Amino acid sequence: MSTNEPAASTHDRPELRAVEGGAANADARRAQGGGPDRSTSWWLGMLRRRAERMYDEKLPLDEPIAWASEAERQAAIAFFNAAYRAEESGLSQAHELAAEVAEWDPELAEVLRLYGDEEGWHRALLTEFLAYLGGDVRPMGRVTGTFYKLYARAKRMETIVLTNLMFETIGSTTYRLALRRATHPAVRHMLTILTRDESFHVPLNVHFLRETMKRRPGLPTRLRMKAIYHLLFLALLGSAAASRERAALFDKVTFKELSTAYAEHLGRLFLQEADFDLTPSTLLLRLFGLDPAELRASEGPSFTSVRAAEEAVDRTRVTVTAL
Length: 323
Fold this sequence. Notes:
Elements: H1 14-31, H2 40-52, H3 70-101, H4 106-132, H5 142-153, H6 157-181, H7 185-213, H8 219-251, H9 255-272, H10 282-287, H11 292-297, H12 306-311
């Protein structure tokens, strides 16, 4: 080719635009404090290693629980029913997405399938645990039912993944708060499994969202995602009030503690993953006593980071701490 021929511009070469866009996104994550990105192959390897021994873990259900009251037991049943519904929803959505994604990225589809399998394992454990508590799987309450009905109606892949990422974030936060005051070995073990694995699932869902948004990078998608993000942020903060009516006697977490923790962890996640351009309301964060600049710049290991996910590959070596 002649040396006088002009070089191809990114306008003429969409593949160059994609490469440059990916590099810019990586730079944005590093500049804003976001964690390192990992390839789909990396996540697939991690999930396959986790799957090798997943079913070896058993719950210690031989020691009965001495409840302070029947109301406390019923609150525990309500708490773990909510967890069951979250895992059930995660399982079905992950496997449905896997079937759709297989058409254009078989490797990512396998990651989704294995992720769904982990959610299914949790569902099986929770079924067993609810029976141990003297309960069973019950119909969803009005607020929870509305959430999952709307979630099930979502059709756009990026909407489903964003919703699931936010659900996983508040789930991990809720379990860590509950773990703080749990004393019975079986309860602590069940909460530890959920806490440990949901913390792995948060950065995994960050990867899912990043991959799905590559498919629809335009302004309409960005605007729609912003609207969904802000609506969900408010709805999830509000859901903390509904959950306190049912589960506070069990986990001893107040509405203020739970809603503030939701705002903190949802806010930090998206402030640090700056390439998503989903910024929480500064006013809303300040109403909870949170400084956006501090959340964005906060350092140290996060229980929802890729580093935490790396350490969670071998479940037997994970140390779970309460909030």
